[in-house]
Amino acid sequence: MVAEKAADSTKEAKKQMDVLSSTQAVVKNALEKLGYPDEVYELLKEPLRMMTVRIPIKMDDGSTKIFTGYRAQHNDAVGPTKGGIRFHPDVTETEVKALSMWMSLKAGIVDLPYGGGKGGIICDPRDMSFRELEALSRGYVRAISQIVGPTKDIPAPDVFTNSQIMAWMMDEYSRMDEFNSPGFITGKPIVLGGSHGRESATAKGVTICINEAAKKRNMSVKGAKVIVQGFGNAGSFLSKFLHDEGAIVVGISDAYGALYDPEGLDIDYLLDRRDSFGTVTKLFNNTISNKELLESECDILVPAAVENQITEDNAHNIKASIVVEAANGPTTMEATKILTERGILLVPDVLASAGGVTVSYFEWVQNNQGYYWSEEEVEEKLYATMIKAFNAIYDTAQTRQVDMRLAAYMVGVRKMAEASRFRGWV
Ligand code: NAD
């Protein structure tokens, strides 16, 4: 049992190392294609700053548990760093590094005045009480307080973190700062300075990309069969938006299994029954595995859960003609190559999921100016941003004859490389 667990964690660490090295390889390729010298790659291949913290928490049973957390700041040449905080048992330093690089690329793609950051704590919030979670959230903010702040590094939610956790973190920072600091973190509840449309922003952005990709393939989203892997923040809103548009959502999943029905699932019922961690399949007996779901019949496949889901082992069996990555890093480099060779249109994570950081930026702008926008204003601005980014990347892919992922990296890395040069760093 112990040996099995150790083998699992070695496998997970290797997967995360692959995620980082494949991200670095695409960044290198993008910089070379843009004609930048090698020292620019040397600067951008790793975060500028990486902090590891240990957080002691008194648990409900009276024991003290020490949690490990990370905060990575990839590059702040353009502006403060920005990126979510993940609470997950599989968090590693390598994963956080890769996630911070992707945030830099996303900020470049949607042209925000930010660099990328990311944080994570190794924990399983599904096994923790509300009180323990609050203590951990506050402890993490105290531990990283020296390097974060509204003009330094602005956190946000990610896997297994939500607006309540953002509220505790904002409150802790405000107490230390002795000043109300809503601009310290985004993804807050509306009453604490959150933005309308933030909660569903990632899914909205993905929906816009799906519609644009379908147009390029002369496919109608109405009537198209869609599979969404993951039923959390990104996956559940996305399923709802696509269902409301007339798409047939034939499959969904969570960490415990998947549901598939070729006639279409009852999305409203599933949304009603899901818990706050995006779990719903536990209520059913007729589930299939996530692996089976990814290879099931559909027109559009949206991985919206975790990394490394489409690999060289299953890329040949994917039935969809469009794959849109709502999750960060769901497709390996080998699988990207296979899907592209098979003529499948792959819309990469750094573009498709950039709606979240875009509306996080809108939230921060509203906090700084103290004047708040309506949901319609936010949606209009998000729509314009995503359409512009999608078309810039699609056109780059066409004119430079590269896949959408490399095109997205080329668009995403340019501003950061230029800013680093103007500052005289390289
Ligand atoms: P979430 O915590 O709300 O939901 C995660 C979902 O994935 C849950 O349904 C969970 O059961 C499922 N899941 C967890 N582990 C799994 C596994 N091993 N196999 C299959 N399913 C698993 O998280 P979220 O915010 O929806 O994020 C999902 C993905 O989208 C992540 O990759 C995240 O980085 C990315 N993303 C999220 C946002 C955002 O604003 N929420 C923005 C950009 C990117």
Automatic annotation (TrEMBL):
Translocase is among the record's keywords: no
BP term (GO), one: L-glutamate catabolic process
Keyword Flavoprotein attributed: no
Residues at the catalytic site: K118
Residue numbers marked as site, Important for catalysis: D158
Residues in Glutamate/phenylalanine/leucine/valine/L-tryptophan dehydrogenase C-terminal domain copies: 195-424
Gene3D superfamilies: 1.10.8.1210, Leucine Dehydrogenase, chain A, domain 1, NAD(P)-binding Rossmann-like Domain
Sites where the protein binds substrate: K82, K106, S360
Keyword set, alphabetical order: NAD, Nucleotide-binding, Oxidoreductase
SUPFAM superfamilies membership: Aminoacid dehydrogenase-like, N-terminal domain, NAD(P)-binding Rossmann-fold domains
Binding sites annotated in the UniProt record for NAD(+): T202, N233
One function term, GO molecular function aspect: nucleotide binding
Highest taxon in the source lineage: Bacteria
Family recorded in the similarity comment: Belongs to the Glu/Leu/Phe/Val dehydrogenases family.
Protein name in UniProt: Glutamate dehydrogenase
Organism lineage string: Bacteria, Bacillati, Bacillota, Bacilli, Bacillales
Gene: gdhA
